[in-house]
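Researcher: I'd like a structural prediction for the single chain below. Treat it as a standalone chain; there are no partners to consider.
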Amino acid sequence: MFKKKTMQDESYYLAGQWQLMWRKLKKHKLAKLSLAVLAILYITALFADFFAPYGLEQFSALYKNTAPTKVYWQDEEGKLSRPYVYKLKKENKMEKVDGKISMQTIITEDTSEKYYIAFFVEGIEYKVLGIKSNIHLYGLVNEAGEVDQKARINIFGADSTGMDIFSRILFGGRVSLTIPFVSAAISFVLGILLGGISGYFGGMVDNVIQRIIEVLSAIPSIPLWMALSAAIPPGIPVASMYLYITIILSFIGWTGLARVVRGKFISLRKEDYVMAAKLAGVSDFKIIVKHLVPGFLSYLIVNLTLGIPGSILGETSMSYLGLGMKAPATSWGVLLKETENLESVAQCPWKLIPLAFVVITVLAFNFLGDGLRDAADPYK
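Model: Treating it as a single chain, here is the predicted structure.
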């Protein structure tokens, strides 16, 4: 027992910085939970074609603005049954209001046939990572066990076009989870590069970069988004719009990190080990990369983690305001655009479900950032 404890102590004192950070991070319960949540979100977004029961081109006018599909677990006799649903049907009903007869269309369930929920069912064909398939995680089959498209299961309801909101959330995650990640990474590189140049060399270069930062920081985000979005040509493909939005978010998000990096470089550039490297003939680039940046690398990692939620909110806000992705493209911001009308929210509250995914993702990144900050703190 004593020997085992001694070996653990030795491994602790011999562990490197990254190993110590990982040990501390594993003790942070919220950070571990957040990491698991983010892993689930990114996996389902990557394999959305498999997890989603319907594709982005599959819709039904009959299911337009319908509530989440009601799932039944008991048969007519009250006995436990396989989960099943009913398809919908239209009924025309005549009503007399103020002496006038009007025709009203009512959507009701057709209880004449059951459609059972099944796993790994065939559906629309798709291609993921170069592999073709038509198997989806779940779907509906009739009593004979055959795939039947007459009924639909919309666990989060349907939107104004009759498309499944759950499927659109999964496909929208590909945009709303990757654009912020890429833009935050680009902003991260720009912040370190420009902030490092500004703090290391100083002088005129420092003055020019700082004035640029002050100008960009003084412009409100929404007017700047509007100005940059106006420069995007109309009618461009979705892939090009994806690229433009990434550039816009990256162009805005690097200024805060650049100032922090500049301050760190100013305080470290006069240290003895930096002066020794200069006297040894080490190039400025190697001094920055190998000596200065590793000195506060833990802070940079935490900054990157906490910067992604801001980019997520930025992309969602742009799409919600009509400045970013637009239908038929799908992102969480595009889905939330249907909630800009208060009457629409009151009649179809399930359209706010994408907002829950935005909140969960932002909180997960924030909690993960908190865990990384605590793990990187040498005094904890």
